[in-house]
Amino acid sequence: MSVGTAATDSLPARALRVIPGGVNSGQRRIPGLTDLIVTGTSGATFTDAEGRVYTDYHSAFGPPLLGHNDPDVQRAVAEAATRLDLTGVAVTEGEVTLAETLVDLVPSVEKVLLTSTGSEATFHALRVARAVTGRRLIVKFQGCYHGWHDAVSLNVISSPEAVGAPDPISTGILPEVLAATLVLPFNDPAAVRAAFAEHGADIAAVILEPIPHNVGCLLPDAEFLTTLREQCTAHGSVLVFDEVITGFRHDLGGYQKIAGITPDLTTFGKAIANGAPVGALGGRADLMEQFSTRPGAPAFFAGTYNGHPWVVAAALETLRKLREQPVHEHVFRLGERVRTGLAEMYTRLGVPAVVTGYGSVFVTYFMAGGEPRSYDDLLANDANLFIGYRRRLLEHGVFELPLNLKRSHISYAHTDADVDHLIAATELAVQDAIKDGGIDELAGTSTMGGATEGTAH
Questions:
Q1: pLDDT for position 456
Q2: Is 72 a catalytic residue?
Q3: Which of 7-21, 119-133, 180-194 has the lowest mean pLDDT?
Q4: Are residues 77 and 8 in the same domain?
Q5: Which of 270, 365, 375, 382 is catalytic?
Q6: pLDDT at 446
Q7: From the CB of residue 72, how many other CB atoms can be counted at a distance below 10 Å?
Q8: Which residue range(s) make up the domain with 176?
Q9: Residue 145 among the catalytic residues
Q10: What does the pLDDT average to over 391-397?
């Protein structure tokens, strides 16, 4: 069917006619920003259709660690495109070099396969865990997000009444699939031990974000991570670290290197290629050899775009720069400046707030008390103020995603001057949001929990 457009139609109106909701991902249509059109990206900024330039701390949920349109990455992709595109057969030198690099960098990785997204990587990790163990159950943790597939599409950003019970983020999931996933509280070693005591013989895998960045930043206790490793080893379960966010952004060896805990499988994405669409799954050789990329192996693995030469080139150049340039030193220093400066500002204003994060990631929770350790702690966050000040930041040329609990990111392209402006703009935005009473429009501002049947209309 043809779709007519009037010359005066706005781009968002045209999008609504041909794209459900007008966007291609569930958290891109933001209340209050439905007319936003992005026309350009560069370094630490993006530009909208009105020519307004924003310093970008959302950073596409984190991939551009080097900054938008990094010139070295762009050149590497362009050069690769002069020689290769997709053939869908055999292997290229770049794929081999990237796999060798990941094996060299990440403690858990003995062999690796490439995907196009992080969701695909976590899907395959759980599939092979079930294939190898012959078991049914998966363990995940409240507040952790591992992609769109059914086994893990539950209990991310849940309302208080939904915590402690299955809380799917989508309808259309078979009840028996949800029932095969056990949801435990993060940072609770006793809950982990209890789950294994009751279900250990049927737990195929435990999957977690070592830092649950999908709800901002919950830092893991050493005992919690140690307990996961010990229990998985004792019961023959597969420990999966979802490092799609933490991998390469926090360390070239992933957060597992920082924590000193080696999982059996690890998934990657986002910062691995500075925004190019590539993911990876790596881990113990005996597990990775169970994929059908080895003829006769039982766990099917395929993907037309896996190992596409252009995204492989982006990943190789990104990792080269992370190894050779002081990227982590720079973003960690600025991240610490942001967290310290914001904490001092909130204290001066007398605003109850907890500023936390890790490395280049920062987030402010508007609540009293100490650093949060679990999702339950985050239920005290003032979501109206959280979203409200971020809406007001736009007036100062600063963009942090105005959705509850979402983290913000520093890139290699951000500067000390950017940090100074961020802190000053945040002070003004918070004061204005408090005067306005925050934002009382929370319905629909998150698509990460509370899905119920019968919502179609």
A1: 41
A2: no
A3: 7-21
A4: no
A5: 270
A6: 57
A7: 14
A8: 71-324
A9: yes
A10: 97
How do residues 44-55 score in pLDDT, each as one tens digit?
999 999 999 999
195 and 83: one domain?
A: yes
Options 242, 251, 264, 382, the catalytic residue: 242
Contacts 24+ apart (CB under 8 A), 165-168: 167/449, 167/450, 168/449, 168/451
State the catalytic residue, choosing from 145, 358, 365, 389: 145
Per the annotation, the verdict on 242 as an active-site residue is: yes
Whether the pLDDT of residue 2 is over 60: the answer is no
Mean pLDDT in residue range 67-87: 97
Is residue 47, in this structure, part of any structural domain at all? yes
Same domain, 376 and 409: yes
Residue 451 counted as domain residue:
no
Number of domains present in the structure of the chain: 3
pTM over 0.85: yes
Q: Residue 188 pLDDT > 60, yes or no?
A: yes
Q: Check residue 450 and give its pLDDT.
A: 73
Residue 251 has pLDDT above 70, yes or no: yes
Whether 453 is in a domain gets the answer no
Residue 449 CA: distances (Å) to CA of 165, 181, 367, 454: 11, 15, 22, 15
